[in-house]
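Hi everyone, sorry if this is the wrong subforum. Our group has a chain we'd like a structural model of before ordering constructs, and none of us has done structure prediction before. Sequence below.
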Amino acid sequence: MDVIQEPPIKRKRGVVNPSNYQRNRIKSSRSQVKEYVNYKGHVVHAKAIGNSCNCPLKCFQKVNEENRNNVFKKTFYGIPTKNEQDIYLQGQIEVCSVRRRTTNAQEGEKRARSYYQFVKINGKNVKVCLKAFLSIHAVSKQRVQRIKLLLCNNETPEDKRGKNVKSNLVGEQYIEEIREHISCFPIKTC
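Answer:
Right subforum, don't worry. Here is the predicted structure as tokens:
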């Protein structure tokens, strides 16, 4: 069966190709394991797996280098969008109540819940510490904290970058009033 490709949309100033727009190239490179040049012209290096955690769980021994690379490149950064990556990370985190509370703790903030992070290897979930989880996925602690908070509130993560309303944006009501005002002027015909 032949697939018929539509010709690119032609316009006055050339062919429309959104994949070549700078903002779209930067966005796709950021969500994948690629080096790119940001808006300021600085080179942002490609992401890589971080250092070992050296914790009692021996996370980097449980998850060998081949499996870490597989999770890093194919599983996590093989996902095309940030929303889907966040949903994947949310699925690898488990929320539990605190197992043991101290009785002589000061009257300050008490932890409401505990979190367990897992890495899926050959269909099995392997428990790892937070530092190993961050290193294997090459994500920031703030990103994981945001995902944990959303998980507690039973919300799915949503990428809200670039969705804010511009501060100098003129409202639709004012634009309509300006149009009406301009249209009330007489049109001069020759």
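For your construct planning: The CA atoms of residues 22 and 154 lie 35 Å apart. Helices lie at 22-31, 59-62, 65-76, 82-91, 130-137, 141-152, 172-183.
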